[in-house]
Amino acid sequence: MHQPAITGTGVFTPPEIITNEELAEAYNAHAARFNAIHADAIAAGDISAKAPSSPDFIYNASGIERRHVVDKAGVLNPEIMHPRLRSRSDEEASIMAEIALDACGTALSAAGRDAGEVDLIICAASNHERPYPAIAIEIQRILGAAGFAFDMNVACSSATFGIQAAADMIRAGSVRCAIVVSPEICSGHLEWRDRDCHFIFGDVCTAVVLERAEDAHGAHFIVRSTRCATRFSNNIRNNNGYLRRTREGHMEDRRDMLFMQEGRKVFKEVLPLVAQHITAHMQQEGVTADGIRRLWLHQANRTMNDFIGRKVMGRDPSPGEQPNILQDYANTSSAGSIIAFSQYSDDLRPGDTGLICSFGAGYSVGSVLVERA
Predict the structure, then answer these.
(1) How far is residue 103 CA from its own chain's centroid?
(2) Which residues are within 8 A (CB) of 282 and not within 5 positions of it... i.e. 6 or more apart?
(3) C-alpha span between 237 and 257 (Å, rounded)
């Protein structure tokens, strides 16, 4: 048996930013246009008028201040309100593979590794560009990695589930060095015309290098243990799942073909599930709340994270104990907890213990207990 370790991370951040002010202005222009076009039906009570949004509404509901996206112009056009992604030929790199290469390169550099030393790539994301061939195999080819690769989708828990899969294979000896990469183009799956969710998501890509601890070239985190759990629920759902809508401009205008959620039910059911999962994981490993130096939680909603942090720590965690990146990135699905880990882990000292946790549709929840080596 071999000890798995995280030896490098990388984050690709799209350069284009949409602020709450810009988003609210675009949405309100869309809402006003919709209400004018459907004025008679609204007056007759056949459909409801669209209520306006505002920067304060967005921030108070989520804690989000801005988000990065791959196409700002399309999202902010009141007549379009979705990203416009250039159609690519089959001979070109997919957009997921393109942004994955950047994040993987940064992670490999941090680990002191070459792509040729990698023998497993898992593309773990909730929003895939196509069903096959696997994006992971495309990334493997372009990087020049060896071994094998496959895609994984467990919604917002994809990255932590991918880390468990890679860590288990390293532990068993079937692979020596792995990358778990999460290119999340969430903007292509969000209904930007829906006031209840138009502000939630942003785009990003993260990558994590895992290898045998004995092979680590520098500072690293030992993966002490991992835990994953699932429980079926329809409260977060997407009946399409691929980027067809943004590529072809318009598809059948069905609301269920994009991100949907029953927000209140999600809050009520997911919060206790996640808090209990983390607490049980810590107890199984003999780790107390005082023994946890840092929580890197899924970046979905500020209120959710605050609740989970209080339940796990038994008090209000300090910003240093539970860092948030939500205000700058919005919800980036499976990548959120990895961004937090990448940005807020260098200051930990040998022996310090932390926990990465993500949760989302499924329901799914994954946790990774790590220790600074």
Answers:
(1) 14
(2) 288, 289, 291, 292, 312, 355, 369
(3) 9
Q: Is the preceding omega at residue 133 within 30 degrees of 0, hence cis?
A: yes
H-only helix segments in the chain: 20-37, 39-43, 55-62, 72-76, 95-111, 135-143, 158-172, 244-248, 263-284, 302-313, 326-329, 336-343
N-term to C-term CA, the chain: 18
* Per-residue pLDDT tens digits for 102-135: 999 999 999 999 999 999 999 999 989 888 999 9
Pairing of strands 120-124, 16-19: unpaired
Q: Answer whether 188's CB lies under 8 Å from 174's CB.
A: no
| 104 tagged catalytic | no
Token pair of 364, please? 């799914």
Rounded-to-integer distance, Cα 333 and Cα 226, Å: 19
The distance between the two most distant Cα atoms of the chain, rounded to a whole number of Å, is: 71
Domains of the chain: 222-372 (3.40.47.10)
Q: Of 123, 156, 177, 228, which residue is the catalytic one?
A: 156
Under a CB-based contact definition with an 8 Å cutoff, are residues 241 and 138 in contact? Answer: no
Residue 314 CA to residue 279 CA, distance in Å, equals 11
Print burial letters for 131-161: b (CB count within 10 Å at least 16), e (below 16): eeebbbbbbbebbebbbebbbbbbbbbbbbb
CA distance readout (Å), 131 to 135, 225, 243, 334, 357: 9, 31, 11, 18, 27
Torsion of CA 116, 122, 128, 133, to 10 degrees: 60
Using alpha carbons, select from 122, 279, 267 the residue that is nearest to residue 206: 122
Q: What are the pLDDT digits (tens) for 220-252?
A: 999 999 999 999 998 888 887 676 544 444 445
- What is the distance, to the nearest Å, from the Cα of residue 317 to the centroid of all Cα atoms in its chain? 22
Cβ atoms within 10 Å, residue 186 = 26
Cα 258 to Cα 183: distance, rounded to the nearest angstrom: 18
Name the region of 286 (left: φ>0; alpha: ψ -120 to 50; beta: rest): left
Tokens linked to 69 = 């996206």
Helices and strands (DSSP H and E) totals, the chain: 12, 13
